[in-house]
Every structure is written in structure tokens, then in C-alpha cells.
Specification:
Helix content: 10-25%
Strand content: 15-25%
Structural class: alpha+beta
Low-confidence stretches: 453-460, 560-565, 650-713, 825-839, 907-992, 1005-1062, 1374-1427, 1429-1438
Oligomer: single chain
Length: about 1450
């Protein structure tokens, strides 16, 4: 149809006959008469102009966001890929981006480089000739949405997501220089030509973003300035400059109206309408000749407008020639002579390639060759062929010598990935080599345990209880920044810190308060059931919002997330994990202190960890100047080491060598009776020397001297000496003194004035060489027979005493093996902490000044950095970065065991306390009696709990990796020696007999459980060496395990979970929690375990925590506060027009009581895609999709208003949403944005506190799949308060039924037709619960349940259709319906290729797909149901 002024529609054609993907971008070819188009479905097509016949069509890497014609080729850009295709679709170049936030591109003037803009911020310079990025530019955190130009001066114009227009000069490396706010609501279109830039965008009107009715024109000759506004009443969503007529703009609206207007601001004279048949215009382009206009629609159609019937795309007018059609294949009959031609069959009977099934694996010959990286630098390229000069070529050498020398490099090929068996063999071989070289094996409890993620493997299939048989709760390690787990566990088991945070009442208005989030996390750790796991997701969410944490390098970036500049986060991250956790500890305590001070509350961190320092500055160049004295507060003491030149000789590397006893610690009465795992056997001095004889003393001195000479030969400073030098810091430097004398040479002195309750010490190890200061010390001792021996004791003391005298600027530190040795008064004396006359006299007698103080500390926690040599070697072989992980040694009070076992969510407690034995009951003072504490005092008597057998405890003390550790064997032997050799002769004989009997029983049990050991003993020696473990190693492990188990049954042993013990040391390795011996705390394992942070607690606090149970929880809200929070207006404000309210808040008379019934359902969105990796050829999920709560609905379950919603909160998104999961959540973009959402928006913290209050009040929740909902919401709910319809309508050893199926069969209602609605799902679950109760009352439940399963097995599990009172199966879709769906990328959040293959496999087996709750039953394997991709990873998060 032609318009009166000459412009008319010349042609209209769909890009694809079946696909209706929106046309996102158009670009005319610069050389040929063609038009390039990109679609939202990831297709790039070329059309012949003016007929718009399809010339070629090629797939792209995703939705196409930009096109650039280069003449006979085109560059297409998607979020994850840049592709170059020739005319006709032949691929020329393809480059994949790891981040996936590419949004725009522009071609550099007279160059082969493309400038790529990123939505997350930043520019990437890509060289098309080299085929790789050659640089990057920082945009100051502004996301790029458009790039255009160049202008007449060569600059590019960038449009950012915040509406700013920025000029990028190539002469300055495209650094943003001049900016101007063009559209406050963001850009809709942007174009530049000459010195003019035109833009259109959105404005904020009445609290909503609407399209501006003006197109703004800017002059960029000097600096960007506003030139004119061109009115366009239809709303300009698309614009382009005319290439031939300067100052002319093409403006188009989404409704199809367009015009050509003057850029000076004059109103357009002629308007045109594109007949889109209801589609919206999504793209526009003008040809270089100015004779063709192309419009793309949301329905997949392209419209071509021109003033004549024969327009030209460009001046050259090079026509596109359509290829000849393919010749139709001729069908031959059996009588045709050509059918008698001989058929080729391969000689090796391998078959033809056409016989191979589509998914069958075949051998393809040798793997590809590998070129040495050092040779690639000298590679030269001619066209598409690269060549490298032979580096072995020499003039005058014999012919062929260079070829023979390079044969080894030429024949290198890619090695296949080793399988599981090969990996185990390689680890065993490395272990043998390390043992032969005198190395130390790291026990299995310190190794990092990763959650095995694989397509089709659900969250519930990972057995966390295998790694945690204690009553405590672990933290998962598959989130970014989860290195904080060790520090969080230490703070949780710090009694004053835990009690203060347990009494903290969260503030609903403080959304990202670290104090509140840590308090809620501690509640979850304290109330979780035994063996469960949770995540610190909400605490880490608050940490990610803290700019100071990002500036200090404490955050880790997440691959694939669209949060602000993960590349910058990774660049700023502290690379050394030990330094990162040390900085985190200091930052976290300071942040908690700032939050409490700002809120007018007593500071928790200050009261527990605050150390007040007195600082003095003296002017040395002018002694007559008065000194300056002030006070400061710190939360962490950095341990200062001597200069590197004073390191002990032979201590470098710390592979396990010993060092001589420090001079200051030689007189310490502490003697360790068990050698550490890295220690050599004890040195015996002969049986002829009696204890205390001169010969024995001489021999001990000789052995100690020999051991010292063998290692260092010189005395090292003790830990107390280093700590004393770290507490009193004195240095001379040139610094600012005052306004009068300016900079002078000064002396600064700092001493502690007020000592903290918990002293945090930063070990400050700069490199592995600093571990030489931590080597064990040799000390003389006597064995059980009185012979003099030499033992090694840890350099780190178990107790220290700090005496501070700020008036005289002095401080002293003492160390000992126990705190009782450092106390001024006996342990049981009531006057120890008092300020009476007796205590003052004792203090004066001990040398404490009147204004000073003395505090005795016990070691209660150590955070260590683990660098497993096996994992480091594997990472080096696979060219991956390895940083290790963190573990925490924590001294847990016995009252914490009882508090955890009495948790409301606890269920059956899992404890590892000793089981009473006959030996305990027979021996006075044994485990059945009161016992004695290590320090000589008595421990409180507590009832004994049934637990695991000693053999189970012994198995925890051995490595789980399958290799023997010499340390475990030595520790077990030493424990047995202490247990059997410390009594009188008669008692020792009786214990030896009991030990022999128990050992025989253990051997029989081991032989029954492991018969292969007996078989191996009969094999020839050559075959025995082929086993993963030799017979001697396996026998050593078995004997050590049995001996340790038998020793734990002895009355004089020291088992890890003995109730008479005052404390139990535990190792917290994320969710792998095991007991440990006290000697392991200071072990280094050949440098594989390095201490990072030490926590010393005042002995009074330690002993009080051993007797007083932890503080009880306080409610998070009061009843009045809960009602006020429910009635709080939405975040949009009370005056903003929203949709009709979908809920009525609870009134004061409806406050929940214990047993009150509520129905609940929640919806979630994905904030990041799942991070996947190939592991031994299998695609695994290295990190799951990070889901966040988006909507939660709570309905009344009783009363006159039963079934009505009392809570329906949409959660405001604090970061960009990666995928709204609309199919499963019913949410669309804009629902979680306060400026656009029509729903009742609130913060995550407010919604969480409402649910937390309902749980604490004892409310009972009804829902479908609540177990996973509560895990992702991150609330620990006792099982007695959950009524899950998934479990109610479930038969044993059968599949679980979906909510849609149950609603259609029992309620005869249809739900979830198009999407999910949380109110509808919760109401359906409530009605199903009513039906369940009625069926139970009538006694017909079992019959009805069997009837549903029989129906499903016969007709499928799709919703039922009722006709004439009888159920009928739902009509099945035709088989080809699925194949007609448009191809596209898999939905984010976990529905990747593996999941799609699983669905296809299910359909092939004849099992129909289900909606929410529906699961595939494949060959007897039942999966628990959840509607969200990646929902199997949705565990408790906080």
C-alpha cells in the first residue's frame, strides 16, 4: 500500500515459516543487496532485497542483541558469544564470553577492532583479525546498553543503564571522559551521526516509568549539550539518522507509526503506519542509500518500505543470487540395475558410520595433537594456516637431525581424562612417594569434601550424616564467600558472643544488618537437628552489599552472575586465603561494633573482643616537647616474628623437623605423652637407667642436645615471648607530631590498658617459611617403665597469662600447659576473681602493680589453612588454581552438647559420648564415676547418653581418604600406652588382659567386615604389592583402630566424648565435623596445615561455660510488633495505586497460638545461573543456581476466615534477577521492582521475621513440598509443626504425587493451568488436608490412596478430567508437538541439557511429565519433588 508522499510498504515476510521469534535487530548489508536480521530465539538470517526472500539462516549463541555489516560478512553479538558469518552463512569466527553480559558493540574507525559493551559494566576491545580480546576499559561501574558512532571527531557514544550519555575517545583508550544525563529512566534508542546524537528513553511520571514523547538531540562537538527536542506523540521507541539527508531523523513507535523529522526540533509533517496486525515494532534500519526502511516486529515479520518499486540498498547494487535448489534423490526399486552394485563392508567388522546410533560412543582414533605453549609464541600465520620454525634446526647439521629432535614435541597428544580408578591409583602412588621421602599424609578429616553434583542427582541423595555424627550443625561450602564458615563456627561457640547474639532482637528496618543476620544464623545453628546442614546465605547476602568488604578484598565473584562487575570483585579479592580470613575477622568485629554504636546499643564485639590500647608518642629530635598519650581500641593482635635472617636453620619448609626447646619454656612442667602425627617414634634411652639416676639425666640431656643440634642448634623464642613483643609495640620513625614542630623523629609505644574477654591473635604467617617458628619442641620425659625418653610438645601453649601495667608501659606474657599453673589462687578458691584483701595481697605477692591487671587465658579455638598436597598436585595437572580451604579447631563446652541435643528441631539425638562398659563400672573413679578434670578440679555430673561404639569413634580418628597416616597410628599407640601403662602392676595386668580380650573381639569383627584382608594374607608377595594399601599398612591401621577403641573402653583413657571431661576438641570442616585429640590442634602435617587465627578466652569464662548452659533464645518479635509488621505499608508507599490487596492481616484476636493451623507456599527466582564444569567427561554442577525468596503466602487454616490469606508478600530484589522462572513462580520482570511493581512489596528481612514469629509461636504449617520451601526460606521448623501433603498422600516405596494430580483427583479442580500462584497452591494444600482428615475418620484413606496409585499406573499421572462422575485421563499431546517448539537456550537455574535429556528419556519410557511436585519414576528410582530448577540445592540458608 503506497502513501501519498511516496513512501509505501514494498514487501513483508516472516523470517521463518514456523518460528515467531521477535526480530531484535536489523542491519542492511554494506556491499550486497541484502538485509541481515537477528531474532530473540538466537537466529541470524539474511534476506534478499527487495523481495525479502530468505537467503541464509544460521544459529547464534543466544538472543541477538546487535549486528554490524562488514561487507559480504556480518558480525552478530549475543550475551555469551560473538560470531562472524560470511554472506551465505559460512562461519568465519566464533568467540565465547565467560561472563555472559555482552549488550552492545561498535566498529572502531579504520581498524579491525570491535568495542564490546557489557551490561554489568566495562568495555572489551576485540580484534577480529586475531580472534581474541586485546584489552578492557573500566566504565566506572555503569552498565552499557548502547554503543553508536563514530562521530565526526572519531569518538564513540555510549549509553549507560542509568541514562547517562558518555563520549569515548579512542585516542585515550576509550576511557569515559564527558558524560551527560540524557534520560533519567534509561534509554530506549540511541544513534549518532556527524556531530549530532539522538536519544529517546523513559521518564518517571506518577511513580511509574513511561516512554518520553520527545526525542532529544545533542551536540557533541565540544562537550555534550542539549540542542533540541523533537516531539513525537506516539512515543519514539526506535530512531535512526538518515544517512543521506543530514539533520533528519527516522522516528518510530512500537505501535507501527513512523515519520521523518527534522533534528532541529520542528514537528514532523507526514506520518506513516506499518500494518503489523497487532505486533509491536522491535527494530528498525535504514539502508546506506536512504531508499529502504526496514522494520522488525515481535511476531517475527520484517517489513520493507521504499519510495519506489526498485529501490537500491547501496550504491554498488551487488545483487544476491539465490542458490540452486537441491536435486531430489531418485528412489530406486529392487529391479533397477543400480541396485545390483556391490556394497562395501569394512574388513575389520566395525560397521558403517550410518549404523551408529545418534547417542552411541564410537572410537575416533588418536586424540588431537598438543603444541607446546612455549612454541606458540613464535607461531606465524599465513591465511588460515599457522606454522612454527623448528627450534632444533642448525646450519650444518646432518639431514633429518632437526626432524628427529622435534619428533617428541610433534607427537605429543591430548591425554584423556583419568577415570576414578586412575585417580585413586595416582593418589596412592603420590602417597607412597611422599612417605618414602619422609613426608606426612594429611588425615581425611581435614580434606575438603565437595557435594557431588551431577545431572539427575538430587539434594537428598547426598548423605550429610556420613560426615557429621555429632549433635552440631555444619555449614555448606558451595556458595561464594563460604570461606567464612570456619570463622562463623568459632564465633558461634564463643560463649559470651553466642549469649549476646541469642538475646539480640532483630530490627525489621535494618535490612542488611550483620548483627541481625548473625543472630538469626546462630538461632538456626542452635535449633537445627543433629546431622543437618545449613548455609549462611543471608549473612553473605548482607556482606555482599557492604562496600567496605568489597574494598578490602573480602568478596569472591560468582561466574555468570549479572551482579555489579564480578570481574572487579575478583580483581580486588585478596588472593591468599589465610590473609583474607584474617582481614575478615578484623572487619567483621569492627562492623558489629559500628552497628551497635550507631544503634545506641551496647557493643557485643567491644564487650567480648575489644582490647583498649594506651598509645604514647615521644619526640626524639626535641626531647623537651611533652609526649602525647591517647587510647585506641583494636579487636585483633598481629603476631610479630623476628626478622627472616634469625630463622632457625633447617626449619625452612617445615616438613616435619623438630626444634630445640625454647629457653623460656624449658622449665615448663608440661610434658606431652603422645607424639604428634608428624613426629618420629619416641627415643628410648635403655632399660638399665633407673628414673632419677644420674645416668638417666645425662642420657636425656644428650638426646635433647642431639635433637636440637639436628634441627636448629639454637634456642627459638617461645610463643609467650613473641606475643609479649606483639602486645608491646615500640618503634622509631619520622612522623607528624603537632602543628608547631610538624614532622619529627618520634618513638611510638603501644601497650594494652584493658584486656578483652577473648583475645584474638592473627598468626600473620607471610609464607611457608614462617612455619619454622611453630615446630614442636623436644622435652625430656619418662616412659611407663621409668626409662628416660624424649618427647615433642607443641610450640603453641594451651594457656597463657598476660600482665599489663599501662602506667609503667610494661606488659609480660607467661605460658603453660594448663591454666591452673598460671592462676594466682587455687581453682576452687572463691576469691580468685574478687577484689578483696586476700586477692590484693596475692596479686601484690605475684608482682602485679596496683594499676595493672593480670588475665589468664585458655586456648579455645584455632582457624587453620589447609593446603592438601594431593589436591594441589591434581589442580596443577589440570591447570587450575588451588587456594586450599579453612578448618576450625574448637574446644566445645559440654553444656553445648546438652543444649544441642535438647533442640526443638532435634528429633533423635546423635551423640558420640562413651558407652558405659564393665571396666568403667568395675574401676573406681572410672567413666562411671565422677572422674576428675584435667586440671585437678571436678566436672559437673551429667546423665550418660547412649551413643556410638568406640570402634565408630576410632574410625573417625583415621583418615577417610583410604591411606594410612603415621600420625593416627602413633596417636593410637600412645593412647594405648597411656591407658595401660600408668597404673600399678596388678591393675596394669588386669587392664592388659581386658585390652587383649577387647583387641581379639575387634580383630574378629574386622575380619568379618573385611574378609578381603584375610584373603590378601595368602597371596604371593608380588600380588600384595599391587593393592592400593600394603598388608603392613592395612594391618597397622586395623591395629591402631582396635587399640584406640580398646583404650577408650579403659577407665584411665581420654576419649573424645567422655562426659567427665570438661571440654571436647572438635574439627569443623564445613559440614564435616569430627572429634580430635588436643595434640592435633598445633600439628602442621608437614606444612599442609597452617594456623591463621588463635582465640584465647579468659579462664573464668571458660569454666563458667562448662557449668552454665547457653542463654535461651528470645522471641524475634513481640505480639504487638508482629501485628505492626503485618500492617506495615508496602515499600512503594501508602499513596501509590497498587492492585487490590490479596490478603487481610491478622488482628489482635487472631494471634497465633501453639497448634494454630496455617497454609503456606513460596515462590523463588534465580539470581545466578548454575556454574557447571566437566569432571572426567561428565557435566557436573560445580555451584548450583542461587535462588532467592520472591513471594510467600500464608493462609488461615482455621476459624471463620479459613482459607483467606493473612500474608502475601512480594520480596524486593536487592540485586539483578537472572531468571524469574515465570513458568514455576508466576513472576514476571518488574514484579520485584518498587518503581514498577503493582504488588505489595516488602523486604526479605520483614517477611522472614513474620515467618520466624509464627514458627516460634508453635504454629502448624500445611503445604505441598514444605520441606524444600523451608530450606530455601532458611527457617528451621520442628517436624511436629509441618503437615506436608506430599508425605500424607504417599505410599511406601512408591513415587510421590504432584499437587495438580491430587487436586484433580480428590478435589476435582484444575490448578496451575498456565503458571503457579502461591495463594492457589496453599489453598489447595489446605483443602487436601481436610480431605485427608475426612478419609481417615471414615477409615477409607488406605483404599483411596491405593485407588489413586492404581489409576496413575494405568493411565499416567497427568491431572484427571471428571465427566459424569467418573475420572477420565487427560488428552495427550501429539508426539510431534514438542518438536515444533522453537529452539533456544535451556532455562537458567538448572534446566540444562542434562535435565532435558532426562525428560526425553522419561517420555521414551512412557512416563508422562508432571507439574509441580510431579516426579519421574525411572527404573525404580524415586526423586523428591520440587518445581524449581536447581531446587534440589535449596537447603536451609541464612
Amino acid at each position: 500500500m503506497w502513501a501519498q508522499e511516496g513512501w509505501g510498504e514494498l514487501a513483508s515476510s516472516p523470517l521463518h515459516p514456523r518460528l515467531a521469534d521477535p526480530v531484535t535487530v536489523l542491519a542492511f548489508d554494506a556491499l550486497e543487496e541484502g538485509l541481515w536480521a537477528g531474532t530473540d530465539g538466537g537466529v541470524v538470517a539474511e534476506l534478499v532485497c527487495p523481495a525479502l526472500d530468505r537467503y541464509c539462516s544460521v544459529p547464534a549463541g543466544g538472543p541477538v542483541v546487535d549486528l554490524c555489516s562488514l561487507g559480504e560478512s556480518v558480525v552478530s553479538l549475543s550475551a555469551y558469544e560473538l560470531t562472524v558469518n560470511a554472506s551465505g552463512g559460512a562461519p568465519r569466527l566464533s568467540w565465547a564470553d565467560d561472563v555472559g553480559d555482552l549488550a552492545a558493540m561498535a566498529l572502531e574507525t579504520r581498524s579491525t577492532r570491535m568495542v564490546l559493551g557489557r551490561a554489568g559494566g566495562g568495555l572489551t576491545l576485540f580484534d577480529l583479525k586475531l580472534g581474541k580480546p586485546v584489552g578492557s576499559v573500566d566504565t566506572g561501574g555503569r552498565g552499557v546498553v548502547a554503543l553508536c558512532g563514530p562521530t565526526s571527531r572519531g569518538a564513540l557514544v555510549m549509553g549507560s543503564s542509568d541514562g547517562y550519555l558518555t563520549l569515548l575517545d579512542p585516542r585515550s583508550g576509550y576511557k569515559p571522559e564527558q558524560s551527560l544525563l540524557a534520560n533519567a529512566g534509561g534509554f530506549a534508542a540511541l544513534d549518532a551521526r556527524g556531530d549530532l546524537v539522538a536519544a529517546t528513553g523513559f521518564v518517571n511520571r506518577m511513580g511509574r516509568l513511561v516512554l518520553d514523547t520527545y526525542a532529544k538531540v545533542f551536540d557533541v562537538r565540544m562537550a555534550p549539550r542539549m540542542l533540541a527536542s523533537v516531539p513525537f506523540a506516539a512515543g519514539p521507541s526506535l530512531l535512526r539518522f538518515h544517512p543521506r539527508i543530514s539533520g533528519t531523523l527516522l522516528l518510530a513507535s512500537a505501535s507501527g507509526v513512523f515519520t521523518l523529522a527534522d533534528a532541529q526540533g520542528l514537528s514532523p509533517t507526514a506520518m506513516y503506519q506499518v500494518e503489523t496486525e497487532g505486533d509491536m515494532l522491535t527494530s528498525v534500519a535504514i539502508s546506506s542509500s536512504g531508499e529502504c526502511l526496514a522494520f522488525g516486529g515481535s511476531g517475527g515479520y520484517v517489513h520493507l518500505w521504499a519510495p519506489t518499486h526498485d529501490p537500491a540498498v547501496n550504491q554498488i547494487r551487488q545483487a544476491l543470487v539465490l542458490p540452486e535448489p537441491h536435486t531430489t534423490l531418485v528412489s530406486l526399486s529392487e529391479e533397477d540395475p543400480l541396485c545390483l552394485a556391490p556394497t562395501y563392508f569394512p574388513m575389520d567388522a566395525s560397521g558403517l558410520l550410518s549404523d551408529v546410533e545418534p547417542f552411541e560412543s564410537v572410537a575416533v582414533g588418536l586424540p588431537p595433537r598438543v603444541v607446546d605453549a612455549t612454541l606458540l609464541k613464535s607461531m606465524r600465520q599465513s591465511d588460515f594456516v599457522g606454522y612454527i620454525h623448528n627450534p632444533h634446526f642448525q646450519r650444518g647439521a646432518p639431514y633429518g637431525a632437526a626432524t628427529r629432535a622435534a619428533a617428541a614435541q610433534r607427537n605429543q597428544r591430548v591425554q584423556p581424562r583419568p577415570g576414578l580408578r586412575e585417580l585413586e591409583e595416582a593418589r596412592a602412588e603420590r602417597a607412597r612417594r611422599r612417605a618414602a621421602a619422609g613426608g606426612v599424609m594429611l588425615p581425611g578429616r581435614y580434606k575438603r569434601v565437595r557435594i557431588k553434583q551431577q545431572q539427575g542427582v538430587r539434594f537428598e541423595e547426598f548423605d550429610f550424616s556420613y560426615y557429621n555424627r555429632t549433635p552440631f550443625t555444619g555449614l555448606e561450602n558451595d556458595l561464594a564467600n563460604c570461606y567464612t564458615n570456619a570463622l562463623l563456627q568459632v564465633l558461634f561457640f564463643c560463649p559470651p558472643m553466642r549469649d549476646a547474639l541469642m538475646r539480640h532482637v532483630p530490627e525489621p528496618s535494618a535490612e542488611f544488618s550483620l548483627t541481625c543476620e548473625m543472630s538469626l544464623l546462630f538461632r538456626m545453628l542452635a535449633t537445627a537437628a543433629s546431622g543437618t546442614v545449613c548455609q549462611a546465605a543471608n549473612l553473605l547476602r548482607a556482606l555482599r552489599q557492604n562496600k567496605e568488604a568489597a574494598g578490602l578484598g573480602l568478596l569472591e565473584g560468582v561466574k555468570g552472575e549479572r551482579a555489579a562487575t564480578d570481574i572487579e570483585v575478583e580483581a580486588k579479592k585478596e588472593r591468599l586465603l589465610s590473609k583474607r580470613v584474617q582481614s575478615l575477622s578484623r572487619f567483621l568485629l569492627e562492623a558489629l561494633n559500628k552497628e551497635c554504636v550507631a544503634g545506641g546499643r551496647p557493643s557485643v564485639a567491644d564487650a567480648v573482643f575489644g582490647l583498649v590500647q594506651r598509645q604514647r608518642m615521644q619526640c626524639l629530635s626535641r626531647p623537651n616537647r611533652p609526649e602525647q598519650v591517647k587510647e585506641a581500641r583494636i579487636f585483633q593482635v598481629d603476631l610479630q616474628y623476628p626478622p627472616p635472617k634469625e630463622r632457625p636453620a633447617g626449619g625452612a619448609g617445615c616438613a616435619g623437623g623438630t626444634a630445640s626447646t625454647p629457653a623460656s619454656a624449658a622449665s615448663s612442667p608440661v610434658v606431652r605423652l603422645a607424639a604428634p602425627p608428624s613426629a618420629p617414634p619416641t627415643l628410648a634411652l635403655g632399660a638399665a637407667s633407673a628414673p632419677g639416676s644420674p645416668d638417666a639425666a645425662a642420657k636425656v640431656a644428650a638426646v635433647v642436645t642431639a635433637a636440637g643440634d639436628a634441627s636448629s642448634g639454637a634456642a627459638r623464642p617461645s610463643f609467650a615471648e613473641l606475643l609479649q613483643g606483639s602486645l608491646k609495640v615500640q618503634g622509631e620513625m619520622r612522623a607528624w607530631f603537632d602543628e608547631e614542630v610538624k614532622y619529627q623523629y618520634v618513638r611510638q609505644t603501644r601497650v594494652p590498658k584493658q584486656l578483652p574477654t577473648v583475645l584474638v591473635i592473627n598468626c600473620g604467617l607471610q609464607d611457608r617459611e614462617d612455619l619454622c617458628w611453630w615446630q614442636p619442641c623436644t622435652v625430656p620425659a619418662e616412659d611407663s617403665e621409668g626409662r628416660p625418653v624424649v618427647h615433642r610438645r607443641p610450640w603453641l601453649p594451651a594457656a597463657i597469662a598476660v600482665t599489663a601495667d599501662p602506667d609503667s608501659w610494661a606488659v609480660s606474657v607467661e605460658q603453660a600447659g594448663t591454666a591452673d599453673e598460671l592462676l594466682l589462687l587455687p581453682r576452687g578458691s572463691p576469691g580468685a576473681p574478687a577484689r578483696d584483701a586476700g586477692a590484693a595481697q596475692a596479686a601484690a605477692a605475684a608482682g602485679i602493680p596496683a594499676g595493672g591487671s593480670r588475665v589468664v587465658y585458655e586456648l579455645t579455638a584455632v582457624i587453620a589453612h589447609i593446603r592438601d598436597e594431593d589436591e594441589a598436585d591434581e589442580a596443577a595437572e589440570s591447570m587450575q588454581e588451588y587456594e586450599g580451604h579453612l578448618v576450625a579447631h574448637i574446644k566445645v563446652p559440654p553444656t553445648y552438647f546438652d543444649a544441642q541435643q535438647q533442640s526443638p528441631a532435634g528429633g533423635t539425638p546423635h551423640t558420640l559420648s562413651r558407652t558405659p562398659s564393665e571396666a568403667d563400672a568395675a574401676v573406681p573413679g572410672g567413666a562411671a564415676g565422677s572422674g576428675a578434670a584435667p586440671g585437678g578440679g571436678s566436672a559437673p555430673h551429667t546423665p550418660r547418653l547412649a551413643g556410638a561404639s568406640p570402634q565408630e569413634i576410632a574410625s573417625l580418628m583415621l583418615p577417610s581418604a583410604g591411606f594410612p597416616a603415621a600420625g593416627a597410628v602413633a596417636a593410637a599407640a600412645a593412647a594405648l600406652q597411656r591407658a595401660t601403662g600408668s597404673g600399678a602392676d596388678g591393675a596394669g595386668t588386669q587392664q592388659a588382659q581386658q585390652q587383649q580380650h577387647l583387641q581379639q573381639q575387634a580383630e574378629q569383627q574386622q575380619q568379618q567386615e573385611h574378609p578381603e584382608r584375610t584373603q590378601q594374607q595368602g597371596q604371593p608377595p608380588g600380588q600384595q604389592q599391587q593393592q592400593a594399601l600394603s598388608i603392613s599398612e592395612a594391618e597397622a591401621i586395623r591395629q591402631a583402630s582396635d587399640s584406640l577403641a580398646a583404650a577408650m573402653n579403659s577407665a584411665h583413657s581420654t576419649p573424645p566424648y567422655s562426659r567427665p571431661q570438661r571440654y571436647n576438641w572438635m574439627v569443623f570442616n564445613d559440614f564435616h565435623i569430627t572429634p580430635s585429640m588436643p595434640d592435633e590442634v598445633a600439628e602442621l602435617y608437614g606444612g599442609q596445615k597452617a594456623p591463621c587465627l588463635l582465640f584465647y578466652t579468659q579462664v573464668e569464662v571458660v569454666r563458667q561455660a562448662a557449668e552454665v548452659p547457653p542463654a535461651q533464645l528470645v522471641p524475634v518479635l513481640s505480639p504487638e510488633g508482629f501485628v505492626a509488621l503485618c500492617r506495615m505499608p508496602p515499600l512503594q508507599g501508602p499513596k501509590v495505586r497498587l492492585h487490590k490487596p490479596t490478603f487481610v492481616p491478622l488482628s489482635g484476636a487472631e494471634l497465633p497460638q501453639p497448634g494454630s493451623l496455617f497454609a503456606l507456599d513460596a515462590e523463588f527466582v534465580a539470581y545466578s545461573p548454575p556454574e557447571k564444569a566437566l569432571l572426567r567427561g561428565v557435566e557436573v554442577e560445580a555451584r548450583p543456581s542461587r535462588l532467592g525468596l520472591a513471594r510467600v503466602s500464608v493462609l488461615r487454616g482455621q476459624g471463620p476466615a479459613k482459607g483467606t490469606a493473612c500474608i502475601d508478600d512480594y520480596i524486593k530484589s536487592a540485586e539483578p534477577v537472572y531468571d524469574y522462572l515465570t513458568k514455576f513462580s508466576g513472576l514476571v520482570p518488574g514484579d520485584l521492582d518498587p518503581s514498577r511493581s503493582p504488588h505489595h512489596l516488602t523486604t526479605l528481612k520483614r517477611a522472614y521475621l513474620k515467618l520466624r514469629y509464627l514458627v516460634d509461636c508453635g504454629a502448624v504449617f500445611v503445604g505441598h513440598g514444605l520441606k524444600k520451601d523451608f530450606r530455601m526460606i532458611n527457617i528451621i521448623v520442628p517436624p511436629s509443626q509441618i503437615v506436608d501433603t506430599v508425605d500424607l498422600f504417599h505410599a511406601k516405596r512408591s513415587r510421590k504425587l504432584s499437587l495438580r494430580f491430587l487436586a484433580s483427583y480428590l478435589l476435582r479442580s484444575s490448578i496451575q493451568e498456565h503458571t503457579h500462584d502461591s495463594i492457589e497452591d496453599a489453598a489447595t494444600a489446605l483443602r487436601l488436608y481436610d480431605v485427608y482428615q475426612q478419609l481417615v475418620r471414615e477409615g477409607a484413606f488406605e483404599a483411596k490412596l491405593q485407588e489413586m496409585y492404581d489409576w496413575g499406573k494405568r493411565f499416567g499421572w497427568e491431572p484427571v478430567i471428571w465427566k459424569d462422575g467418573q475420572p477420565h485421563p487427560a488428552p495427550q499431546a501429539p508426539p510431534l508437538a514438542a518438536s515444533s517448539a522453537p529452539p533456544g537456550p535451556a532455562p537458567a537455574g538448572g534446566l540444562g541439557a542434562g535435565h532435558m535429556q532426562q525428560q526425553q528419556h522419561t517420555q521414551q519410557q512412557g512416563y508422562p511429565q508432571q507439574g509441580r511436585g510431579g516426579q519421574q519414576q525411572q527404573r525404580g528410582m524415586h526423586h523428591s519433588e520440587h518445581p524449581y530448577p536447581g531446587g534440589q540445592r535449596g537447603i536451609g540458608r541464612r
